[in-house]
Amino acid sequence: MLTRIRNANMVKHQIVEVPATKMSKAIATILKEEGFIENFEIYNENLYQYLLLSLKYKGQSRERVIKTIKRISKPGLRVYSNSKTLPNVLDGLGIAILSTSKGVMTNVKAKELGIGGEVLCYIW
Q: 69 near 10, Cβ under 8 Å?
């Protein structure tokens, strides 16, 4: 999902189609709440579900809202963080998305709840 968003953002596509999973729906919800994407919707094609993400751009020159999206925890090397060592992305200008026992959330919300988890990605 993150690679598809990154690639579409680089060539300034308006819409991205990604396979719908619980994790991708949760990440899309966070991206919408934080203002990185305009909207998303779920649609069915045969037996499969897909997410359509509307990417967000600023101004007439279509400047990208998502400057960088970086995968942190990978299948070969999982990265975990406890509540005391949660990442601070660009001194608060970006967000980290975490998978916690309470669901998928940003680093700011996890810090408020005092829980840690797996660091999925950084976005700024």
A: no
Q: What sign does the dihedral 120-115-33-36 (CA atoms) show? A: negative
Instruction: Tell me, rounded to whole angstroms, the distance of Cα 112 from its chain centroid.
Output: 19
In whole angstroms, give the CA distance from residue 32 to residue 120.
Answer: 17
pLDDT at position 91, please? 87
User: HSE (CB half, 13 Å, CA atoms) of 25?
Assistant: 9
Q: Tell me which residues of the chain have a pLDDT lower than 50.
A: none
**How far is 99 from 112, CA to CA, in rounded Å?**
15
> Which pLDDT score, from 0 to 100, does residue 105 have?
96
